[in-house]
Amino acid sequence: MAVENLIRIPALLITRHWRLLFLIMLALLHVSAVRGAADFWTRALMLAHFGLFITWQPFMRGEKRLNAAQLGGIVVVSLGILFFFNWWLLALWVSVLAGIVGGKVFLFQAPGLRRFYLVVLMYLVTLLLVWIVPSGVVPVLQRSEVQLFAEYGLPLLFAVMMVIPVEPDSAETPQIIDFFYATLLFLMLVVLVLGAFAFMEIGKLEYEVALMYTLLSIAGVLLMLSLVWNPRAGFSGLSMYFSRYLLSIGMPFEQWLYILAELSNIESKPERFIREAMQGMARLPWVGGGRWQAGTDSGEFGIVSKNAVEYSNQELHVKVYTRQTLSPSLEWHFNLLGQLLGEFYVAKIREQKLQQQTYVQAVHETGARVTHDVKNLLQSLNVLCAAAERDSGDPQELTLLMRRQLPVITQRLQQTIDKFQRPQAETGRFVPAASWWESVQRAYYNRGIEFVSDEMNAEMPLPKELFDCVADNLLQNALRKRQMESGIAVRAVFQCKDVIEFEVCDTGAPVSADVSKGLLRGPVPSASGFGIGLYQAAQLADMSGFSLQLSENRQGAVRFTLRGAGRRS
């Protein structure tokens, strides 16, 4: 613990006094440039300058330990300064340093830091073009006033840097640069120096004129690029293509979408979908490995690296190991990939839950319909029991009633048992219209119901289960209504030609407005029940290609109609 505290002390001192450290680094560079690359002490001063640069550098935190490769790079640069230092290396180093500082200029939003690094950038560019290039890169005869300005005028910028108000920097703030702008600025300086050298050699011009021509040429190229970058003539410009390239570089976004879409069509289970999707992510070029946690399921693939990026939501946690450190834009891309994967995974979970709910709903509706059928059969048995318990009456007539009703009840009970064994929706077998109409009349014989048949194609087939269910529900409801309201007449009308139509009408009170709004569309509470039987009958009619409606609803005329196209035998 004490060693870690000793390591943190220099880092805190550097953070608090970084500007002084930076100015000393620039002062050593200035003295080295003024003394010349051939001077013996210049190499020692450049070594000290390079040491201060390593302390200030924005690439790694101060308390981070150096690995073997980084330490080897520092040794190579130090040996290069000692044995191979010249004006070209000095110009190259100042250009690199200007690029790094320029990258920080474009990055910082704080006005104080931006002004400070702008002054530093101006000093480095001026030192490069006014002193270093004409002194050794392209040797020219320096005027005395230019030499005085370079030796004593440029250091005045150090005082300006010292007095510029700068916002306090936290020790936890990472010192980063914009690599794109730093590279662009470095290349522009290289082009400027080489362009001036080319104009001097080819055009036999003086250094100042060659530098001016090079600046004008670069300015013209930049002006042309700015016009092409965002034109006003309807052309989308280079910015559109460049942005599209940057947003897709290193990230095959379309490939990932194709993988997810294909898996979504193939895999229906969320666990298998997420497992296959993560295996598909391993095919992306920048992904080395990863792991995920989705509910109780988890897994991993590939290899583990020190570079990792994570995405989490309520259902999914993904951690991906990358081969290189991701830039902020690629991390944003990964968040998009993770969000897409999470949305697909949640959709699969919802799809699975919906399938389960659909199955439960089918079982529930089948059970409700079977329960209603059992209740209708029980009412028919109660009628037979009531007829058998009466002492008066003709025994032969009772025997005939039993012979007519018991086979029908047995058949209906067998159909009900079959529904339990096959919960899926079935329209049942088809029977001739005349046969079904006769069976209905036998089932409700002597129940006070008027049966009317207008037109009938005796051989027209109709779905027996549907018409039995509708007839039982409508007739039983009408008979139950007659028990509550005396003097109600019940009438059943059946016609079968091109269109099959069955209706039950009673002369009682109309269905209330509150009940009629939801009737046949779902369970509705009423004085005699919840309308589940009518709802199940309407659902079965829809699946069979028929429609069940409350066709008339007024005092003395309440009519339910089942209607549908006939089927040729």
What would you note in describing this structure?
With 569 residues, the protein is of the alpha+beta class. The protein has three domains: 2-229, no CATH class; 252-350, no CATH class; 425-569, Heat Shock Protein 90. The protein is 63% helix and 13% strand. The chain is built from 19 helices and eleven strands. The protein has a five-stranded mixed sheet with strand order 6-8-9-11-10, with helices on one face. Strands 2-1-4-3 form a four-stranded antiparallel sheet, with helices on one face. A two-stranded antiparallel sheet has the order 5-7. Helix 5 crosses helix 9 and helix 6 packs antiparallel against helix 8. The longest helix is centred in the middle third of the chain and has 62 residues, at 328-389. Mean pLDDT is 77; it is low at 1-9, 170-174 and 423-427.
Number of domains: 3
For this structure, the quaternary state is: single chain
> Looking across the biggest beta sheet, what order are the strands in?
6-8-9-11-10
Q: Quote the average pLDDT.
A: 77
Order of helices and strands: HHHHHHHHHHHHHEEEEHHEHEEHEEHHEE
In DSSP terms (H or I, runs of 4 or more residues), the helix count works out at 19
What global shape is seen? rod-shaped
Rg (CA only): 46 Å
Which stretches are low in confidence, meaning pLDDT under 50 for 5 or more residues running? Answer: 1-9, 170-174, 423-427
Distance, first to last CA: 94 Å
Total beta strands: 11
What kind of sheet is the major sheet? Answer: 5 strands, mixed
Which strand-content bin applies to the residues? 5-15%
Class based on secondary structure composition and strand pairing: alpha+beta
